[in-house]
Every structure is written in structure tokens, then in C-alpha cells.
Amino acid sequence: MSKNVCKRIIVSLKKGKRWLNKMTGLAFSKINLRYSNSGKDAGFDLFRKSSGFTLIEIIIVVVILSIAALAAIPLMSSAAGVQIRSATNLIAADLEYAKSMAISRGQYFYVVFNEGTNSYQIEDQNNNIIQHPVKKGFPYVMNFTEEKRLNKVDITGVSFTDDKVRFDCLGSPDNGGTITLESDGTTATITMEPITGYISISL
């Protein structure tokens, strides 16, 4: 390629660049003149951010807040409701634990309830309180009053004979009965069937 041709290409590129810059500047100046009318609200300025909300945005926010409020109602209703569910599940689990211990050890195990102290405990056949399997070194006693996460729950009724139930080596209870719990007006009942030892919860 000759030097003259190269020079012509370079000159053409420079002219094209100047023309493009000129047209770009002209276009932006026309846009500003068209949509900005000396500070009046005749149009809008492309470089000015909008400070308001659209109707759709407001509706979306209201809907989200409504859903959040509905979701919070059960939580705000009371911690007592959560506590009484936890307490019923805990008692049911401990009854099952005493039953499994009686089967695995081949001896009697008792669950003894005390409405006066708002507590219950698991005892072996010699009426000694067994050790807690998780809290090493502690007796298997659950006192709702002393337990912070369950201190709103009260044991209001126990219908087992002598307020206790005994499991034999087959896992059968010596009697059936119910344990009634109450927390801020909410009542729950744990029922154990005789012979089978089937446990059900009613809230």
C-alpha cells in the first residue's frame, strides 16, 4: 500500500472522529434543551433522579408489610404457646425414654409427677432417680419453673395412680392416664393408653 493511500485513510479517520464528536454533543444538547425548560416542570431532565414512588411500588410495599404482619402474629401471640408445645413433646419423649429403658434393662422404670413442684422425674426399680443421658452428672428431673425456656408452663393435672406410671420389661405401663398442662390460658393434654402405652397429645 502506498504512502498516499495511508495518508488519505488517516485523514478520513480524523474527519470521521471529529464529525462523530460534533454530532454526539449536538444530540445531547438538543435533548437537554427539549426536556429541561429553564427549571420549569414542562418536561424532565435526563440527569435528574426521580424522588418519588410509583403507585405499583407503594402497593408492593404494602403487600409485603401485610404478609410480614400476618407471619408475626403467631410469634407475637405468646411465647406461652410455643412453650406448652415444647413441654408436651418433652413429656411424651421422656415417657418413651422410660419405656425403652425398661425394655432394654429388663426391669421396672417409673415416671413420677409432682404438681406441687411443677416437675417430674424418672426413677429405676429401686426408686432412685436415674442420671440424665445428655446432662452428664445431673439427675433426670425436669422442673418447668426452673427451666427458663419452659417457665410459663404449669402441670395442672395428673390422673395416673399415685401420680406415677411404671413400665415393665415389655414396655407396658401399669396404668393409663393423662397429664394436663396449662400456659396463659392454653391447655394441652398428654394421654397414655393402658397396656399398649400409646401416647397421644391434644392441644
Q: Tell me the CATH architecture of the largest domain.
A: 3-Layer(bab) Sandwich
Order of adjacent strands in the largest pleated sheet: 3-2-1-5
Structural class: alpha+beta
Distance N to C terminus: 94 Å
Return residue spans where pLDDT drops below 50 for at least 5 consecutive residues: 26-47
Characterize the main sheet: 4 strands, antiparallel
Overall 3D form = elongated
CATH topology of the largest domain: minor pseudopilin epsh fold
Q: What's the helix-strand series?
A: HHHEEEEEEEE
Please give the count of helices: 3
Assigned CATH class of the largest domain: Alpha Beta
Full CATH superfamily name of the largest domain: minor pseudopilin epsh domain
Q: What is the residue-averaged pLDDT?
A: 79
Task: Please give a quick description of this structure.
It contains three helices and eight strands. With 203 residues, it is α+β, with helices and mostly antiparallel strands.
What does this structure look like?
This protein is an alpha+beta fold. The protein folds into two domains: 1-46, no CATH class; 80-202, minor pseudopilin epsh domain (minor pseudopilin epsh fold, 3-Layer(bab) Sandwich). It is 41% helix and 20% strand. The chain has three helices and eight strands. A four-stranded antiparallel sheet has the order 3-2-1-5, covered by helices on one side. A four-stranded antiparallel sheet has the order 4-6-7-8, covered by helices on one side. A hairpin with a 6-residue loop joins strand 7 (186-192) and strand 8 (199-202). The termini are far apart.
